[in-house]
Design goal:
Layout: E1 13-20, H1 24-35, E2 40-43, E3 58-59, H2 70-94, E4 105-109, H3 112-127, E5 133-136, H4 137-143, E6 153-157, E7 161-162, H5 165-179, E8 182-184, E9 188-194, E10 197-203, E11 208-216, E12 237-247, E13 259-264, E14 267-273, E15 278-282, H6 296-309, E16 318-328, E17 335-338, E18 344-348, H7 358-371
Parallel strand pairs: 1-2, 1-11, 2-8, 4-13, 11-18
Antiparallel strand pairs: 3-7, 4-6, 5-6, 9-10, 10-11, 12-15, 12-16, 13-14, 14-15, 17-18
Helix pairs in contact: 1-5, 1-7, 2-5, 2-7
């Protein structure tokens, strides 16, 4: 029997699956698990929060292609293909619009160096059979008249779309509640063990949650849960990103018809136009640990680079500045599925592809939780690929990092 839909339990309980972390990755994992018949719970003080509140939501499998990430490309493309059906199912289950737009992306170059870099990217895309079209500067401005006159060329990628991560998180939260996922709105303090097996978690208020399978899906905080043996502790780190949100008043609409991105003086900048008139500008990439301060320098750099790309942006009202933490892994790819510790699974390390990989992560984790193994296309992303980098803990007593201080929780 499932617990009552969306119930908050404040006492000790037992589950088939316990998901630690209620961001979009944790929520989609819980939703798919409960759909497979698993009695499922989520432990998070503020489910639906986390990095999704800051992310821009670009579904950019093609324009985000990087050298050395060809294996990840396959997973990204597979998830992108699932998005339309995933959105339709989620919107029906939740009754909420997630802001999915099949609008395409335009990547542009502002100088000769940027143009050469973009040409190399286009060649890489073509070698992998990806659909992208090279455009002249004039053709770019014909598509997007607000672009700067100095644009030297660009890549039109009609298959790279967008979704609103905040709406996505809200819809997943409702879908989980309606499906019977139980929410414990408190912080998981410690993984509990019985010998060499994970048995659940203890919450900050002392509640102990027993689970046959525990999924660590706490984003950049996944590597800091007490009680996790060092040999299976996920090697994820926080990567700071600052993002701006502007409003496009009626006289300026439509400001942009699709996502526009560029490299300006070596730095990446993107502009994502929402149907509700919001324009998201991002994002910085900063290795600054747990710092989530919005800085004057970060805001300045984003506005400066965006202004070179689209001069009219400085006329728009600035309505929000935020900074969040992406969960980075050593190879920029996620860690999915069972670890060497029986009963413990990972769904973390998605770095800049968390929103894009939401559909396929849910499917992969459901398969792992019910069948015990990863499907073939997900096996390159098993946590075991990093196992040799961690020394084994002393026999009989796994190492335990200190509990997180309150200021280290996600914003």
């Amino acid at each position: 029997m499932h617990a009552p839909h969306g119930r908050d339990d404040t006492h000790d309980a037992t589950y088939d699956a316990l998901v630690i972390g209620g961001g979009i990755i944790g929520l989609v994992t819980a939703w798919r698990a409960v759909q497979r018949g698993l009695r499922t719970a989520v432990a998070d003080p503020a489910p639906g929060g986390g990095a999704a509140q800051v992310a821009a939501g670009m579904l950019a499998a093609v324009t985000e292609l990087h050298y050395g990430e060809q294996t990840l490309l396959g997973l990204n493309l597979a998830s992108a293909r699932r998005y339309p059906d995933f959105v339709a199912e989620l919107e029906e289950a939740s009754g909420k619009d997630v802001g999915y737009r099949a609008c395409g992306t335009l990547a542009v170059a502002l100088d000769a160096d940027d143009r050469a870099h973009l040409r190399e990217l286009h060649a890489l895309q073509q070698r992998h059979g990806l659909e992208s079209q090279w455009l002249t500067g004039r053709e770019c401005r014909r598509l997007e008249p607000m672009l700067a006159p100095g644009v030297r060329g660009g890549l039109r990628v009609d298959g790279d779309h967008q979704v609103d991560p905040r709406r996505l998180a809200a819809a997943l939260l409702v879908a989980c509640e309606r499906a019977g996922v139980v929410f414990h709105r408190d912080r998981a303090e410690r993984l509990t063990l019985d010998g060499d097996r994970s048995t659940g978690a203890e919450l900050a208020d002392g509640t102990r949650l027993a689970a046959e399978r525990t999924v660590l899906a706490a984003g950049s905080l996944s590597g800091r849960l007490a009680g996790v043996p060092e040999a299976v502790l996920p090697p994820v780190r926080p990567v700071k990103g600052q993002v701006l949100r502007l409003s496009v008043p009626g006289p300026y609409a439509p400001f942009l018809s699709r996502t526009v991105r560029a490299i300006v003086r070596g730095g990446h900048v993107y502009l994502v136009p929402r149907e509700n008139g919001e324009l998201v500008v991002g994002a910085t990439t900063e290795e600054l640990g747990w710092d989530t301060t919005v800085t004057a320098g970060g805001v300045y750099e984003l506005l400066r680079d965006a202004h070179e790309l689209v001069p009219g942006i400085t006329e728009l009202p600035l309505v929000e500045t935020r900074a969040g933490l992406r969960p980075g892994s050593p190879d920029n790819a996620p860690l999915l599925g069972p670890t060497a510790l029986p009963g413990l699974h990972l769904a973390t390390g998605h770095y800049r592809n968390g929103v894009l990989l939401t559909p396929i992560t849910g499917d992969v984790m459901a398969e792992a939780l019910t069948g015990g193994e990863l499907p073939p296309h997900a096996r390159p992303f098993s946590p075991h690929r990093f196992a040799a980098e961690h020394p084994s803990p002393p026999a009989g007593r796994p190492s335990a990092p200190a509990p997180l201080a309150p200021q280290e929780q996600p914003v």
